[in-house]
Write a structure and sequence with these properties.
single chain, mainly alpha, globular, 391 residues
């Protein structure tokens, strides 16, 4: 008992909040000291807003300014405005703080036991740091999907719809949080809120450009997305299929098959009233949007790891579950760090898409749990008290 109380402080969410804040600040200061080459994504976001104001093509490559193309929506460029107008040092810190704090509160607000929230927050910290080091919006995207779930559970359909729309304009796959819509009442309110928010956010760039200019900007964005190389695979189901089995299938067909597999559990409408089922489906969405994204980078995996952690710490934690989570820690969370020698990453982790593999296996396990009535009754019912919902 004494040993248990000795580590009880680690479950303190106030402590975890401080850890997340300190981590965000420390990562930001470190990257700022290293120089602009080490926060290139932030520079891309910042310059996109400048290009919007100057009437330049936001989706052209500016090698003298940026390390890569800007691939986000025009709305995202405007939403990034408060950071773009700040000095880099302050903007870097505030951007990472937004991502870290949003994810912290998204996990904190999920209706599960406090100690499980703490376990999840500690578990995803390394992956969050990886994302923050790259100055991407992935933690914020994960947060918005989680907030959709939290708000739907509270029957706050208006704000849930806003979160879906914001997630869509930050990263297109953020819209998959809308799939939770099927499991709740208030469908009309949620749908109207989502579409109204979509239209409003679409119009925000009109504060700076004309409607004709905005149409031209969207055409340029769609052209850039259409020119996306189908053979350029990062950490995904498609890369595993290619690197392990020599299958170089069209990503569109793979993604369509993935969508079908994702939504099949929604046919079990009689289980929508069970919180266990709703929580599992949330985990499935969080992992799906990463592993079926052929462009998923290492920093994107904070979204999938959040889903995996939410699944594991709310499961019975059978031997197979423990093996899967151990593989996740080793190959997904730790492989990008200095704990793995560079030659292992170069010769094994990247060529064999080992970062993606544990998440794929866990997603398959989650789909089995969602579809297997016998497993559902025998295992999950014993772990999480079922809460009825007027869905």
């Amino acid at each position: 008992m004494q040993g248990k109380s000795r580590f009880q402080f680690l479950a303190n969410l106030n402590l975890l909040f401080c850890v997340y804040v300190v981590a965000a600040i420390a990562v930001s200061v470190h990257r700022y000291i290293l120089g602009p080459d080490d926060y290139g994504n932030y520079i891309i976001f910042k310059n996109a807003f400048s290009h919007l104001l100057q009437g330049k093509d936001m989706y052209a490559l500016y090698p003298q300014l940026n390390i890569d193309l800007f691939k986000y929506s025009p709305t995202f460029a405007v939403l990034f405005c408060p950071f773009a107008l700040l000095p880099d040092f302050l903007g870097l810190i505030l951007w990472n703080l937004l991502n870290a704090i949003a994810l912290f509160f998204a996990i904190k607000m999920i209706g599960i036991e406090e100690n499980k929230k703490a376990f999840i927050l500690w578990f995803i910290l390394i992956e969050l740091i990886t994302s923050m080091q790259n100055y991407q919006s992935n933690a914020l995207t994960a947060s918005l999907i989680l907030f959709v779930f939290v708000l739907l559970e509270k029957k706050n359909y208006l704000v849930a719809g806003i979160c879906v729309a914001v997630g869509f304009y930050i990263k297109l796959f953020g819209v998959f949080g809308a799939l939770l819509w099927f499991m709740y009442s208030g469908k009309i309110k949620f749908l109207l809120s989502t579409w109204a928010s979509m239209l409003l956010l679409f119009a925000i760039p009109l504060l700076f450009v004309s409607i004709n200019e905005l149409i031209g900007i969207y055409k340029s964005w769609f052209n850039m997305l259409a020119s996306d190389s189908p053979n350029e695979l990062n950490h995904s189901v498609m890369s595993v299929m290619k690197n392990w089995f020599g299958l170089n299938l069209n990503k569109i067909y793979v993604q369509l098959a993935g969508i079908i597999l994702l939504v099949i559990p929604l046919l079990r409408w009689n289980l929508f009233q069970e919180k266990v089922f709703r929580l599992l489906f949330l985990c499935s969405i969080l992992i799906w949007v990463v592993i079926f994204n052929h462009k998923a980078e290492s920093a994107t995996y904070i979204i999938a790891v959040a889903g995996c952690a939410l699944w594991f710490f709310n499961s019975k934690q059978k031997p197979l579950d423990i093996v899967l989570i151990a593989l996740l820690i080793m190959f997904t969370c730790l492989s990008p760090t200095d704990l793995f020698p560079k030659f292992l990453r170069k010769d094994y982790i990247v060529p064999y898409s080992l970062k993606a593999l544990p998440c794929i296996l866990i997603w398959i396990k989650i789909q089995y749990e969602l579809l297997s009535l016998s497993w559902f009754k025998q295992h999950l019912y014993k772990v999480i008290p079922l809460k009825k919902c007027n869905c």
